C-alpha cells in the first residue's frame, strides 16, 4: 500500500475484499435487472400483469386444468413460461405481476432514498453551518417530523393524496402516481439522515481547514460545497443503502395497508394473506422477493459501512 | 415539547382537511344525499366554519374527551382507552423479548468476533431486519397458529380476564415484532462491545489483574449498554406510537394502532387526530425520559 492512499481508495479496496457483501451487492443488481426486464418476461409468459384469466385452462401434469377453479382457487407455480409462479385469484400471472411490482418498489425505494439524501444533506449542511435561528428552525421541523409515528404519517399522507392527488401550483399529480409514495417516503425519512449529518457538520466546522478556507475569503456556499460536502460524503454513502432498504420496506408496508401504487409487493402480500389457506404461494412469493431485495441491500450496506469505518474492524484475540 | 405537539396537531389537521378533495359532510351523508342533507350535516358538525375554528373545536373535543368519530359515531377517547392496554401489552412484551435476544446475540457475536459463527450471526441478524413484519406475522399466524395449532390464530384476551390466555395470545405477535428488532439491537451491541473492549480503561482493568468476567461485567457491558438503553427507549416509544400498527392489523389485536389504521383509511379526522396526538405525546415524553436516563447512566454527561 503506497503511502498517501486516499480514504476513498482504501475504502474501495476494503470493500473489494469483502466477498459476502459483493455477492449480495451483485444480487441486488441482478434483481434490478430482473425488474427492468419485466415486459420481456411478460411476452414470454404470454400475458401482461393486469390480464385476468378467470375461465382459461392450461395443461398441467398432462391434463387440462382450470387456471382458477370455480371455488376461486388459482393454480400454483408451474415452473414454465406461462404461469411460472402460478396464478392469482383473477387468473393473472404471478411472475409477471411480481416483476412489475418489483419495478415499482425499486423505483419508489431508490427515488425516495435519493430525495431523502438530497433534503437531508441540504438541511444538515445549512443547519450545521449557519446555526442560530436557522438551525433552531431546522431542528424543530425535524423534531416535528420525528415525533410523527412514521407509518401513521405515511398512511395519513398517502390516504389524503390518494383520493385527490396533489396540486402544487401548476403541477398536478394524479392519485395513482408513483410520485406520491416517493414524496411521502422521501420526506418522512429526512430526520433520520439529517440529524447525524448535522452533527458531522457541527464537528467539521470547527476544524482548521474550514478556518483556512474562511481566511482565504471563501463564502458560506463555497465552504459548504467544496469543504464540508466532501467530508460528509462518506457518511452519506454509508447511509445510502440503508435508506433505500428502509424506503422499500416502508413502501411495502404502506401498500399492504392499501395506500400505495399498483402493482406492488405489499398489496400482493395483502391479497395473498386472504388466500393463505388455499394458495400460499400468493403470499410466500412476493414476501420472499421483498426479503431478498432488502437483505441484499442490508448486507451490501453493512459491507460499505465496514469498508469506510475500520474502527469496527474486528480485532480477534486480546 | 409543547410546540412540537402543537405543530403535530396542526399538521395532522391540515393533512386531512386541506389536501383531500373529499368533503366530510358529503362522505357522511351516505349515498346520493340531497343538498339540504349535506347542509344540515355541515352545520351540525361545524364544517362550514373556518379552518381555524374547526381546528379549535376539534382539539377541544379531543382533549375534553367528547370527540366522536365522523364514521362510527363512537366516542374516540373510549376507543383509545380500550386499545391502550392491548398496544402496551404488545409493545412491552416485544420490547422485553428483543432486549433479551439482542443482548444475548450481541454478546455472542462480540465474543466470537471475526469467526464464522459471528458472521453467521450477523447474517441472521440482517435477515431478521429484512423481514417485513406483516408478512412474517401472517406466516407465523398461519403456520404456527392455524395449521400447527400451537398458538391461537390471532385476537386478544385481556389480562384481567385470564392472564395465561393473555400471554398465550401474545406470544406470536410479540415474537414477530421482536425478531425485527433483535437483529438491529444485536448488531449495535456487538459493535459497541467491540469498541469498548479496545478502550484504555478496559486494558487498565485487565492489567490490574481483574478476572475477565469482572472486566466484562463492570466495565465493558455497562458502558456498551448505555446507548442501547437510549435506543430502546426511542424504539419503544415508536412502537407504541405507531410501529405496532402492522402487527395489530395482522393479528387482529384491536389496539390503538389498528384503530388508527382503520380511521385513517376512512379519513376519519377526530380519531386520527387523537391517536396521532397520543402517539406524538408518547414519543416526545419518551425522548425526554431517555435523555434523563442517559444523563443518569453516563456520568460524563452530567458534568457538562
Give a structural overview:
The complex is a heterodimer of chains A (318) and B (304). With 318 residues, chain A is mostly helical. Chain A has helices at residues 7-17, 19-36, 38-45, 94-130, 132-147, 150-164, 179-188, 190-204, 208-215, 220-256, 265-274, 281-308; strands at residues 57-60, 63-66, 166-168, 171-173. Chain A has a two-stranded antiparallel ribbon with strand order 1-2. Chain A has a two-stranded antiparallel sheet with strand order 3-4. Helix content of chain B is 79%, strand content 0%. Chain B has helices at residues 2-17, 24-29, 35-45, 51-64, 76-111, 116-130, 133-147, 163-197, 200-207, 212-243, 245-251, 256-265, 269-297, 299-303. Classes of the chains: A mainly alpha (318), B mainly alpha (304). The interface between A and B is large, with 50 and 59 residues.
Q: Largest interface: which pair?
A: A-B, 50 and 59 residues
Helix content of chain A: 55-70%
Q: Provide the gyration radius of chain B in Å.
A: 24 Å
Taken in chain order, the helices and strands of chain B follow as: HHHHHHHHHHHHHH
Structural category of chain A: mainly alpha
Number of helices of chain A: 12
What is the residue-mean pLDDT of chain B, rounded to a whole number? 79
Q: What topology, given as strand order, has the largest sheet of chain A?
A: 1-2
Shape field of chain A: elongated
Task: State the shape of chain B.
Answer: elongated
Number of strand elements of chain A: 4
Number of strands of chain B: 0
Which properties best describe this structure?
heterodimer, A: 318 residues, mainly alpha, two-stranded antiparallel ribbon, 12 helices, disordered C terminus, B: 304 residues, 14 helices, 79% helix, 0% strand, elongated
Short description:
With 318 residues, chain A is mostly helical.
What layout of secondary structure does this protein have?
The complex is a heterodimer of chains A (318) and B (304).
Chain A: H1 7-17, H2 19-36, H3 38-45, E1 57-60, E2 63-66, H4 94-130, H5 132-147, H6 150-164, E3 166-168, E4 171-173, H7 179-188, H8 190-204, H9 208-215, H10 220-256, H11 265-274, H12 281-308
Antiparallel strand pairs in A: 1-2, 3-4
Helix pairs in contact in A: 1-12, 2-4, 2-12, 3-4, 4-5, 4-7, 4-8, 4-10, 5-8, 6-7, 8-10, 9-10, 10-11, 10-12, 11-12
Chain B: H1 2-17, H2 24-29, H3 35-45, H4 51-64, H5 76-111, H6 116-130, H7 133-147, H8 163-197, H9 200-207, H10 212-243, H11 245-251, H12 256-265, H13 269-297, H14 299-303
